[in-house]
Write a structure and sequence with these properties.
Blueprint: H1 9-30, H2 33-41, H3 58-77, H4 83-99, H5 108-113
Length: 133
């Protein structure tokens, strides 16, 4: 008999927050709103039910969380000068996410080749406050 510990609601919520961070903080730096909309249509970083082997266990949740954290951190700190340093981490995390059904077809090269600029007027960037003036 094998005992499996289920993931917590907080972990599930945190996974969702990390995916949202990718779309609101990371993607607008590298891609236009049209490209980000295409990513959403392609269900990038959204679990695919057919391919999903994530059984909502504690171990699986930690692997997904750590992979999402690595992707977000690498993409926030990557430059053409340190790409080799982060490439293995990026590829390993991307592979792990794909194995768990979180579709991520993007390569590090696509981010490096993108014109890095801050899209402050992007519809995907989180607003700094919730008050409308």
């Amino acid at each position: 008999m094998k005992v499996i510990v289920a993931s917590t609601q907080e972990q599930e919520k945190y996974i969702t927050e990390l995916v949202d961070e990718f779309y609101t903080s990371i993607s607008p730096i590298y891609f236009s709103d049209d490209q980000i909309a295409d990513f959403k249509k392609m269900n990038i970083l959204k679990p695919n039910v057919e391919d999903q082997i994530y059984n909502e266990t504690l171990k699986d949740a930690f692997k997904i969380i750590s992979s999402l954290q690595v992707l977000n951190t690498v993409l926030k700190n990557i430059t053409n000068h340190n790409e080799i340093k982060y490439e293995d981490m990026f590829n390993k995390s991307s592979k792990t996410l794909n194995e768990y059904g979180y579709f991520f077809p993007l390569s590090l090269e696509q981010f490096l080749k993108a014109e890095k600029c801050d899209h402050y007027l992007s519809q995907y960037v989180k607003s700094t406050n919730d008050w409308m003036i």
